[in-house]
């Protein structure tokens, strides 16, 4: 959804109705996560995807019908053994898709949501998918305000509280309530889609490898900062547009920077005077991934210095070094792919092995 919002924002600002299809539930080997979106706008223009191609034709027709004035629809698509040409998922999974029309009259908060996501402001969108409440009704929830309604004041209050909790976690998924927001009831299903600010990638060491890592980090949706103590190397012209470049001692910069459980830290300096104080700071704070470049000999010497600096075995075990997966990478771009592959594998619990050597589902259930 985040990727298609700029286009949807333009349609919305122009007052053009469009059909918005959102994946609200998946099972087994589904190709996309909840929150994946596809929209059909003016002149049959299509943006986004809900299944990677399996059911897009059927969803296109549904979105057209709904955009032309139809009621919101909830449809489930799965695999059919009886008819190989039937609409369905060839991967064997199942997805449930909510298709609704979006206009300023139907969804007064949509434009504000688009603006907030563009500005990096956290917001959750709650949408009724099933039950006695109006299907497709939407409520936008920010940490300090709301816009829209799900059709009942009690339901709005309960969903607002849950939406703020999910927003703090960056979580997306279905919740169930009674008609007036009663807990432990499941008459009304509401899809909560959180738009937390993009996670951060902090790259230390403004070398040629850093430019490649920064580029792939930006591609993966991270907000990337490159930091180096040497101003001659820490110059914006050496890095992709949109990447923040900071000339400061790495450990001092990190000490004054907030990190969380989604933050990625890549240490590419492989110089003890930078690495040891920087990693001492990094390994004692929240982060999803902390990787450091260097040979196995460099890693062993670095680990010894970190232990002498007082880091525990538990803290040292968080360090991914040498950084990246074993791809035989040589060039900066290949090394960046190796690093990105390790980050993605760690994020989703992947093994890093070739799929031909595994027997697990290609699209396994995502960890919570």
From TrEMBL:
Domain XdhC- CoxI: 11-78, 117-178
Ranges in coiled-coil conformation: none
Highest taxon of the lineage: Bacteria
Pfam families named in the record: XdhC_C, XdhC_CoxI
Domain XdhC Rossmann stretches: 201-343
This protein's name: Xanthine dehydrogenase accessory factor
């Amino acid at each position: 959804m985040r990727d298609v919002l700029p286009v949807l924002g333009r349609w919305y600002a122009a007052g053009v109705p469009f059909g918005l299809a959102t994946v609200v539930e998946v099972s087994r080997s589904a190709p996309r996560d909840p929150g994946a979106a596809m929209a059909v706008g003016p002149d049959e223009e299509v943006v986004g995807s809900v299944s990677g191609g399996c059911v897009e034709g059927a969803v296109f027709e549904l979105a057209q019908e709904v955009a032309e004035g139809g009621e919101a629809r909830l449809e489930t698509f799965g695999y059919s053994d009886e008819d190989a040409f039937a609409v369905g998922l060839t991967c064997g999974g199942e997805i449930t898709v909510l298709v609704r029309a979006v206009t300023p009259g139907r969804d007064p908060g949509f434009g504000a949501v688009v603006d907030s996501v563009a500005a990096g402001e956290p917001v959750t969108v709650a949408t009724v998918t099933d039950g006695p409440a109006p299907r497709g009704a939407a409520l936008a929830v920010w940490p300090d305000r709301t816009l829209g309604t799900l059709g009942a004041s009690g339901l709005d209050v309960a969903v607002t509280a849950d939406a703020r909790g999910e927003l703090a976690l960056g979580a997306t998924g279905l919740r169930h309530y009674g008609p007036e927001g009663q807990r432990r009831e499941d008459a009304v299903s509401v899809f909560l889609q959180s738009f937390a600010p993009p996670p951060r990638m902090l790259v230390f060491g403004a070398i040629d490898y850093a430019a490649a890592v920064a580029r792939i980090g930006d591609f993966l949706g991270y907000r990337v900062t490159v930091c180096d103590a040497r101003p001659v190397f820490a110059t914006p012209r050496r890095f992709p547009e949109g990447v923040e470049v900071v000339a400061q001692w790495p450990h001092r910069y990190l000490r004054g920077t907030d990190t969380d459980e989604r933050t990625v830290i890549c240490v590419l300096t492989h110089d003890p005077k930078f690495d040891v104080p920087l990693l001492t700071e990094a390994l004692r704070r929240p982060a999803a991934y902390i990787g450091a470049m260097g040979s196995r000999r460099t890693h062993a010497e670095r680990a010894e210095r970190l232990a002498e600096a007082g880091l525990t075995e538990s803290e040292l075990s968080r360090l991914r070094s040498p950084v990246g997966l074993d791809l035989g990478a040589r060039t900066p771009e290949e090394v960046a792919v190796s690093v990105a592959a390790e980050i993605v594998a760690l994020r989703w619990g992947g093994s890093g092995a070739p799929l031909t050597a595994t027997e697990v589902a290609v699209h396994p259930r995502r960890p919570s």
